[in-house]
Design brief:
This is 4-carboxymuconolactone decarboxylase. The chain has helices spanning about 5-15, 20-25, 35-45, 55-70, 75-85, 90-100, 105-125. With about 130 residues, the chain is mainly α.
């Protein structure tokens, strides 16, 4: 394992939580190991581990980018991560308001629908 992989796994666990990462690791196969290594080193070990901006800001950027590009499948996971990154529901809404203006109302609308459902689930689990 590289230092970047080790740092990436540490950051990934801090942001997504041990349970999520443990499930992902348990599902890893020989086929997807190169991809898992890439995202652990690149996304988590490089981008998310850089301290230029806060984890809260990274959450907001990530949610906005996922919505703006129509990559909705990962939005609930990143909404759940806000409990660890410090992005509030108001922060989430601000990110999606930007999406509405700069990328389109339908994309923001769908992201908000996903966020509402995920935030409600998180509240129920408290």
């Amino acid at each position: 394992m590289t230092d970047r992989y080790t740092q990436g796994m540490k950051t990934r666990r801090a942001v997504l939580g041990d349970a999520h990462v443990d499930r992902a690791e348990a599902a890893r196969t020989d086929f997807d190991t190169p991809f898992q290594t890439l995202i652990t080193e690149g996304a988590w070990g490089t981008v998310w581990s850089d301290d230029t901006i806060s984890l809260r800001e990274r959450s907001m950027l990530t949610l906005a980018l996922l919505a703006a590009t129509g990559n909705f499948d990962e939005i609930p996971m990143h909404i759940r991560a806000t409990a660890r990154t410090g992005a509030s529901p108001d922060d989430i809404m601000q990110a999606f308001l930007h999406v509405a203006i700069y990328a389109g109302v339908p994309k923001a609308n769908h992201a908000i629908k996903l966020a509402k459902a995920t935030l409600a689930e998180m509240e129920d689990q408290r």
